[in-house]
Amino acid sequence: MPTISIGHNNGPSMKIGLGWQRHCWAKARKDLLGKAIPVEVVRMRIKRARELGLAYPQYASIMLGSGRDIVGFLFTVDGLQLRLRKRLEMPDTVQDKLQSLRKCNLMAFAPSGETPDVFRKELQQVAGVPFSSASPEPEGEINWSAARRAIRTALDPLKLPSDAVVMIGTREAEKQWAAAGKIAHFIPASDYYGTASN
Question: How many CA atoms lie within 13 A of 52 on its CB side?
């Protein structure tokens, strides 16, 4: 483990050569595809965007930013818009959206005090779709390393790379968790459930 010097803020690593890697990636992509993206590739991406419940421009932006396809969604409790009354409830719009998703893993943070696996099973019943995993939601004021650990706890059982997962949430703190965990993209729940498929 490297020694951290005084004044280090535990922020993300500034890898040496990252600019060169981006240049090489952009050049390789341009050499492969040329200036225009082939129609077949666009059609394939539009189909994939629909499977993920995303508008095509949103999907293309995320994919081109990370260089990977999206393989999963990590939902916060607020991102699922869950309400606990006599039992767990979910709005129809959220349930419909989740049931329309194809070929991706669904994961969720379990609320404070809940056993993740028990919460996952209850969530599956309410949503009507399988969730691959649930893990404890980060609590209180947490630092970047704690947020990163919480993200990895959600993704590691499925061996998913963080830059191929999109996080759905509502709060600014949740957006910071996504940044700390190097998630491909954070989408506010209101935007995600309001997205019309193209």
Answer: 29
pTM across the whole model: 0.77
178 lies in some domain? yes
Is 13 a member of any domain?
no
Rama region for 110: left / alpha / beta (φ>0; ψ in -120 to 50; rest): beta
Tell me which residue range forms the domain holding 55: 19-198
pLDDT by residue, tens only, the chain of 198 residues: 455 555 555 555 556 666 787 788 778 767 766 667 788 988 999 999 999 999 999 998 998 888 889 999 999 999 999 887 778 899 999 999 999 999 999 999 999 889 999 999 999 999 999 999 999 998 767 788 889 999 999 999 999 999 999 999 999 999 999 999 999 999 999 999 984 443
Q: List all residues 6 or more positions away from 129 whose beta carbon is below 8 Å from its beta carbon.
A: 98, 99, 101, 106
